[in-house]
Amino acid sequence: MAPNAAPKMTAAILSSPHGPRANRVDQVMLQVLLALIPGVLVMTWFFGWGLLINCVLAILFATAAEALVLRLRRRPVLPTLGDYSAVVTAVLFACAIPPTLPWWLTLLGMVFAIMLVKQLYGGLGYNPFNPAMAAYVFLLIAYPVEMTNWLAPHLLTQHHLSLTESWRLILFGALPPDLSWDALSAATPLEALRGQLREHQVMDAIRGASWWGSLGGRGWEWVSSAFLAGGLYLLWRRVITWRIPVAMLGSLLMLAGLFWLIDPQHHPNPAFHLWSGAAMLGAFFIATDPVTASTTPRGQLIFGAMIGVLVFVIRTWGGYPDAVAFSVLLLNIAAPTIDHYTQPSVFGHGRKS
Amino acid sequence: MSVTNPESEHGQSRLWTFHGGLHLPDEKALSNDQPIEPLRLPPLLVIPLRQHIGAPARPGVRVGDQVRKGQVIGTADGYVSAAVHASSSGTVIAIEERRIPHPSGLPAPCVVIATDGQDAWAPLPAPLTDYPHLDPALLRERVHWAGVVGLGGGAFPTSVKLRSERHIETLIINGAECEPYITCDDRLMRERSVQVLEGARIIRTLLGAERVLIGIEDNKPAAIAALSAALTQSGPDPHIRIIPVPTRYPSGGERQLIRILTGREVPTRGLPAQIGVACQNVATTAAVADAVLLGRPLITRVVTVTGRAVARLGNLAVPIGTPLSHLVAHCGGFRETPRRLLCGGPMMGFALSDLEIPITKAFNCLLALTAAEAPDPGPALACIRCGRCAEVCPVRLLPQQLYWHARAKAFDRAQGYNLFDCIECGCCAQVCPSHIPLVQYYRFAKNAIWAHEEERRKADQARARHQARQARLERLEQERQSKLRKKREILDDTTAATVPGQVADGDLDARRALIEAAKQRAAAKKAAAQSRIEPVDLG
User: Fold this and answer.
1) Could you give the number of structural domains in chain B?
2) Inter-chain contact A19–B391, Cβ cutoff 8 Å?
C-alpha cells in the first residue's frame, strides 16, 4: 500500500462514536480485584497471614518489574501501571503459591511473569500465555519442594502463625522456635487423595480421613466457594461471560461424574473435583483471562471444555496432583487456532435462521 | 386494529432479534417535545449539486438568473442521480465550490442563491391524486423530478428504489430512529402521519407489495399512537401495519430492521429486493407523498437541533441550503462552546468544521455536544481481547480481529474477516474498554483497499491494453508471414513444376509467346493512349 494512502490517525479523536464510553481497562481490572477479595480473605482465614504478605510482596515486585521493563522499552510507565493488570497478575499468583513461599521465589516468579511472559511479548494484550500461570509452572518445575510446601488449613492444625512469625518465615525462612515443618504443613486434599489412592486405599476409607470435607477438602472447600462467589460477581457485572467457566467446570464435572459412576471406590465424587485445588479460581479468574483465552463464542466453549478435560486427565493419571496451570497454558497456545476455526457466521452470509 | 400485535394478522407470528446491539441513553427527551417549527428564510441559500449517492446534478441555471421556489436548478444526471431545486425565490449569485456536510470536509459545487424574501413558488406540476390508476412510470418520473432521496441518511435516489426486477412482498417503512438524540422522524411521524401513510400507500402500489410494515422503536409511543390514529381515520387498510420494535441500537439499520420485522437476513453485498423486501425511511415516504399528491419537490426537511451546548433545542423545518449558522441563531446560539459539532447522532455522526456548511437533504440532526456529553476518551490502550466488541456487533463480526489486521495493514486478512460487512455503527468502539477508535481503523482499511483496488483496476486495464496491442502486432506479423509463405508456395509450385529435370522446349516457347503477347498488349495500350491524347493537342 502506498504510504500516502494512510489517513492521519491523529484525527482519531474526531471519529464516531462521540459519546462517553461505557468502560475502561482499569475499571475491568479493579472489578477483577474486587471479585478476588472474598477468596483472598477466606484463604487468609484458613492459611494465615502468609497469603496477605505474599499478595503485598507480589504486587510490589510485579509493579517494580513492570516499571523497570517499561523504562527499558522506553514506554510511558504510569499509564500502563494504571491499568492494574500487573496487580491482577500478582494477586492471582499469590493465591496460587504456598502461603509461606520464600520471598525471593515470589520475586523470581513476578520478574518471570511480568518481564518475560508479559512485556517481552509486547505487554498487555500481546502475551500468548497467562503470566501468573506461566510463572507458577516455572517455579513448580524449578523449585518443586518449596512450591508444594502447603500449610495445613486452620481447622486441622494446632499452631497458627502470627503476623510476625509469618514475616520471619517468608523473609528469613525462620520457623518459630519449637516448631518443625511437619507440625505446620499438610498435603493438599488433591495430593492426599492421590497418595492414598496410590497406596490402594478405596474411597470409603479415604472419606473417613480428617481432611475430608463435605464438598472438597476441609477448609479448601470454603476457599473454592469464595472464588466461586467472586466469579459469580464477575458474571453479574458482565466482566466475564459464562462460556469459559461453564464449559470448563461442566467438562470436569461430566468426566469426574462418569468415572465416579463407573468406579466409585477409586474415583472421588465430582463435587470434590470442582471444590478442590484451583478449579474454581481457574475457571473464573484464570481461564477467563481475555488476553490469552479464545474469543469466539464457540471457541470459548471448546477452550473451556478442553481445560476441564486436561485438568481431570492430569489429576487422575498425570504426574501432578493439580493441573489447572498446565491445562490453561496448553490451551493458551491453542487459542489462536481455535479462534481461527470457530469464526461466527456473519450476518447475511447464509446462516440457517 | 392498528397498533398491531404482530401475532394477529397476516400470519406474522413474532418479532425477531439481531445479534448484539446496545441499550444507549437515548437523550430524545431533550427535543422530542418540541413541535416542528418553521425557520425564518435565510438571506443566502447554498444548495449543493450533489446531495445524494450517484452522479451530481447538472446545474440548470446561470449566475444572475432569477429563480423561484421549487424551480429545478440542477437536473439529475443519469439514472442514479437526483435533481436539486431552489428552496426559495431569489437570484443566483454564484455557482462555486463550498464546503458541504461530508466526513471529508472537502468543498463541492453549490448553487448560491440570494433570497428575495418573496418565497414565490415556481409553477408546479399537477397533483397525481389518482395514483393507483396511473402509469407507474409517470409516478416514478414525478419522484425523480422531485429529487427525493433517502432521508434517513443514505441519500440514495428514491426513484431508483421504486422499481424492482424482483417481486417485492414486503415494504418496510423505517421509523426506528435508533440513534440517540435525534427526534426529527419522531416529530414527523407525530405531525405528518397522514402524509407518511399516503407515501407508504403510493410506494406499495408502485412496488406491488403485499404488505407494509412500519417499524418504530417503542421509545416513541406518541409517534406510534399518531400513526395508528391516522391509520384508523383513513379507514381500514389490511395492508399496512404499525409495529413497535424494542429499543436497541442499531435497530434502525436497514438490514437490522428487516431482520427484526421479517426474520430474514439480506445477503451480504446483496439488496433487500433479493429477499422480496424494500425499505424506505418515514421522511422519505412523506416526501414521496408530497411529490405525488402535491406536486412539490423536496426543498425542506426536518432537522433536529440538539445537544446540551445548544440554548434552545428543537425540531426545525429547514429549507435545503440553509447555513447551519442560521439554525444556531434561530435556536438562541450556544449555551457553551460545543466540544463536538456533529452532523447526525453521536454513534455514527461526523464532525463539522464550521457553521457556514448548508443543510442538505440527508442532514437529519445538528448535534452540539458539551464536554460532559462527549468526554475525551483519552489515549487508546492496548486491546486486551476481552471480546466485548464481538458481543455487541450486530453483524456478528470479530471486531478485534479486524482491528489487529487493519492495524497491521494486513488488508487481505481483514477482508477474510469480512471487513466489508461492517456497517460502522460504532457499537464495538462504544464498549471497548481500551477506548480504541475501532471504526476509524475499519474506515482506514476500507479506504486503503478501495484505493488499492482502484490502482489494481487501472493496472489491469493497462495490462489488458498492452496485451491487446501485443496480440494485434503478433497477428499482423503472422498474417504477413502467412501471405509471404503462400506467395513462396505458389512460387515454389511453379518452380517445382518447371525447374526440376528437363525444361520442355514447348514450355519455353509458350512462355516466350506469352511474354511476346504481353509486350504487344503494352505497346497497343501505349499507342491507344497516345492516339487519344493527340487530338486534344491538335484541337
Assistant:
1) 2
2) no
